[in-house]
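Internal tracking record. Fields below are filled automatically when a chain is submitted to the structure queue. Please do not edit lines marked as system-generated. If the sequence contains nonstandard residues, flag them in the REMARKS field before resubmitting.
Queue: standard
Priority: normal
Entity type: single polypeptide chain
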Amino acid sequence: MVRDFPLGADPAAARRRIEALEAVLERSIQIPGTRQRVGLDALVGLVPVAGDVVSAALGLYLVWEARRLGMPKWKVARMMLNVGLDAAFGSIPLAGDLFDFVFRSNSMNLAIARPHLDRHHPATRVIDG
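SYSTEM-GENERATED OUTPUT FOLLOWS
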């Protein structure tokens, strides 16, 4: 059950938005000389207060999209807990910046959302290649 929204009620479009947002937030930039990838979540988190607020807002958007696609409330609660932990620990000066590089709440939330999408919206599946 997808609720109407101007971005499109199509579950496939919502899945593309969720997966694209996760990629940008968690693994869009490769650290030179390593295989380690980071995203805007970790980089924006370097900006005190405002960075953590923006990062949490983008993470909550991913949760909102999942809920709009009919995700059960208990899974939405798990996703919100991930965003909350990321925001809480990420806001600690210096240690929080290191935490943001390790704790990838958006990737965890995508891992929670994918099985629901695969089961309840099978036409949205994409073959990874």
